[in-house]
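Case 801 in the screening queue. Each case pairs one protein sequence with one candidate compound; here the compound is guanosine-5'-triphosphate. For every case the pipeline is the same: read the inputs, emit a complex structure as tokens, and attach any notable structural observations.

Predict complex for case 801.
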Amino acid sequence: MRVHRLARAAALAEAPLGSLRGCASKPRFLCLNASSRGLVGGAGRGLGTQRYFSQSRIARASVAESVLKQAAADPSALTQETIIDNLDEVERGRLARLRNIGIAAHIDSGKTTATERVLFYTGRINAIHEVRGKDAVGAKMDSMELEREKGITIQSAATFCDWVKVENGKEEKYHLNLIDTPGHIDFTIEVERALRVLDGAVMILCAVSGVQSQTITVDRQMRRYNVPRISFVNKMDRMGANPFKAVEQINQKLRLTAAAVQVPIGSEDNFQGVVDLIRMKAIYNEGPKGEIIRETDEIPADVKKLAEEKRAVLIETLADVDDEIAEIFLDERTPTPEQIKAAIRRATIALKFTPVLMGSALADKSVQPMLDAVCDYLPNPSEVENLALDKRRDEAPVKLVSYNSLPFVGLAFKLEESNYGQLTYIRVYQGTLKKGMNVFNARTDKRVKVPRIVRMHSNEMEEVPEIGAGEICAVFGVDCASGDTFTDGGLPYSMSSMFVPDPVISLSIKPKSTKDTANFSKAMNRFQREDPTFRVHVDAESQETIISGMGELHLDIYVERMRREYKVEVETGQPQVAYRETITQHVKFDHTLKKQTGGAGDYARVVGYMEPIEPGPNGYGPSKFEEQVTGGSISEKFLFACEKGFLASCEKGPLIGHPVLGTTMIINDGATHMTDSSEMAFKNATQQAFRKAFKEAKPQVLEPMMKTTITAPNEFQGNIVGLLNKRNAIISDTEIGPEDFTLTADCSLNAMFGFSSQLRAATQGKGEFGMEFSHYSPAPGQLQKELVAKHEKAQADRHKK
Ligand SMILES: Nc1nc2c(ncn2[C@@H]2O[C@H](COP(=O)(O)OP(=O)(O)OP(=O)(O)O)[C@@H](O)[C@H]2O)c(=O)[nH]1
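Case 801 output:
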């Protein structure tokens, strides 16, 4: 068993953490109000070590003045354990019942539908409205008109609520901050930034489709930010629902140890409820909207055997990831429900395990046990390690502690333009953020006042005077960029920011009428500030405005928002692929720039070589500049200018004007003139040398390859394989289900233009596909020839003008 566990751990460690590629849609927060009641037998967990606090220890603990003094003098010397040990009862109770969670999944798995139930059952909303429902109201968290129309989540939305968990007749109130994230790959940044600041997540899977392409992306993102998760297999009412297939796929495809903690009672349209395998109780939802939970010891006879079997699998799987259960298992004893729950909690927080729950959000079944599991198994803010970098100590990492009385540290993770000005979402990692407080932006070194603090409930907000440590809120009137760290000014801390994938597609855009120019610029500025994956630049040669993003849908949504929200009609050019350029050979250069035009001349000589950098496991890396000059033939100052020249050259490659990857330039010699050399001369000389050497080094155009997943009814499989073959796609996996098949292929983005309409035609509108950037790969010779010819012609035309 131990070997088995190690093998799994090793497999996990080796699993790629993903680099670019995104997934995507809209997050929302839910937050439960911090209870001021004392902790009753609560558990706190320090960094890696388990810490359970006995009642007597809690009683002993009081606000330790000495700890606060120490924190004020030198916060970085404190360990999380020291602080947690000294937390007072009220603080400990507040944190123990606080959860910051995200809901993330593949497109259309039911995230928004499930969130709607959560809001209803916790009393945040008093009626349930469906995504694309007949009442045309739309789900609470899809507040944007476009989202409601298209039935997709585009932006993350935050909300908060209180969940009262009842266990053994005792009520415990939890405060949840919840973010509903979008599923579509084009809105991946919304998932990235939500996961960056959340402590735990609910991964939703479809009971019929199991692990899908975006589930894999979401999995990578959760690993990137070490986010523990519970899994919820939704759509148990659908034909072909099979939660155990989903469990197996989490184990195999995601390489994350998973086991069901429930089994279904009935299936498909006869799905009635679930059996809780830990307490061996049947759970049913009653009432018009499933708001009443009925629990009974009477497990239906036809489910009993399955429940016993799956309970045994749960314990055996837990024994693989938890020492305490392993011991009990080897002694052939039966663990108690409390022991099982404690083991699930430990293993989930340690990222070794995910418990799998099941239900149907649309049929109002088994959502409440999922909320109980959020409280039972996902960490509270004091159980998650959050690090900041201390600028005083060479950016040494320091642990942030979610204690209200410590100096304030928060991260601005999302910006949004609202009717009342810029809204900045902040996660408070340490200390308290108060209305009217002056906070310090670690990036700009500027102080700003916080005039208003609100808690978001989708598009509504509730003003609050202060927000405690470990919570999420939004503030008005704070000018900053996404990813900025704020402190109270006393701590020189900054937090690492989130991962922003590079755009893969771009198009030219301009307003149809010049009278709309002002609104057009306003919209561009706003979208850019809000979404770091949406980029805008003016092409220096063509003077066209170019927008770039994660996919056609991503850019289409902005064009549509411009029309609706800013009343600007625009013209767009053909979508352009974000190509890259590289070299394939080692080439030497010795280049002299020499100009004598009367007065002071220009002189710079650079000598060295260029060579390709072998692509790593994540593909082609950034280009690099190195200087190896000995003997001072080029001074430091001029070498710095050479580097600038190199960076400028890499922005617009010599071949087709796209950025350069995987290329090293080394300058190891040169010459300087007493009077004629200047920084400009060295910068220009480097650019000229780069250009010449690049062309001699067998340059290569690189094109983005997309991991493409297609799902369609089985009868269309032949048609789709035909479509993919025409596009030279490499099919890597095919899975055939009872009704639908899912096919995964690597395809160049260039070959995928127009694919959606062809897929529609080939599957009578029943096929779906999703694409995610995978890596850059050398473009075929013919395509490279065409691109180079087009680029040269465009340049020649420009010169003629
Ligand atoms: N049969 C069935 N359908 C469901 C269930 N939950 C959601 N749906 C339907 O699935 C579709 C997608 O639901 P959403 O809640 O929008 O899914 P989502 O994951 O939020 O979608 P995106 O945010 O766009 O990725 C809608 O038509 C829902 O009515 C369920 O439990 N059973």
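Case 801 observations:
- The chain has a mean pLDDT of 81.
- Residues 732 and 745 are 5 Å apart (CA to CA).
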